[in-house]
Amino acid sequence: MSQTPAPTGAVAHPELLAVYLNDHIASAAGGIELVTRMIGANRGNQHEAGLRQLLDELRQEKTDLATIAAALALPVRQYKQVAVWIAEKASRLKLNGHVLTRSPLSGLVEFEFLASAVRGKRSGFETLRIAATVDPRIDPVLVESLINQAHRQYLWLTEARREVAAGIFGGDPDVVADTTEA
Questions:
Q1: Which of 153, 128, 139, 122 has its CA nearest to residue 57?
Q2: Given 11, 71, 85, 112, which residue has the most CB atoms within 10 angstroms?
Q3: How far is CA 38 from CA 1, 52, 149, 177, 180, in A?
């Protein structure tokens, strides 16, 4: 890690921000792969439209993160995206009680994972909002819109996850506490 202070008007430790941004870009790539698969599994049901919207938003978020990296003159590392792509494909090989067919649990686990990942993503955008206070090359309006979008995505994914859980195990998906403050 560089001990040289960052120039005035720039983030401290840009090399760490490069790693951080690349991790989030790679995560977006993995999310794109997962949501693409989920669209196929949810074709024609009540979650397809929301997943399609999420896919479009993830693609734009990945572009937005790459744009932020470019504005900061930070490299985008393709190998991280490839590694996440491979990991997403490998995750399909889990032991879930079904060998040749898709387990009903797969959809539930996918929605749970996405909801958790979106919370993490929102935290990442909040970190970028902090960095934007010291580096004018980071667009605070863009970052704020990404935070708000991630919050909305989380609320939708939480609702969908509850519906899927109730569809598998029975029960009322609305019995769980409100998530508006999540």
A1: 153
A2: 11
A3: 39, 9, 20, 26, 25
**Whole-number pLDDT of residue 9:** 75
Domain residues for the domain of 136 are 14-175
Q: How far apart are CA 17 and CA 30, in angstroms?
A: 20
Q: Binning pLDDT at 50, 70 and 90, where does residue 77 land?
A: confident
Is 45 a member of any domain? yes
Flag whether 158 is in a domain: yes
Q: Is residue 149 part of a domain?
A: yes
Q: How many domains does the chain have?
A: 1
Residue 38, domain CATH: 1.20.1260
d(CA 173, CA 16): 41
CA distance 94 to 152: 29
Q: Which residues contact 43 (CB under 8 A, 6 or more apart)?
A: none
Q: How many CA atoms are closer than 13 Å to the CA of 37, on its beta-carbon side? A: 16
Cα–Cα distance for residue pair 69/64, rounded to 1 Å? 9
What is the three-state SS of 66-100?
A: HHHHHHCCCCCCHHHHHHHHHHHHHHHHCCCCCCC
141 inside domain: yes
Mean pLDDT calculated for residue range 135-158: 98
Q: Which residue from 110, 122, 133 is spatially nearest to 24, judged by alpha carbons?
A: 122
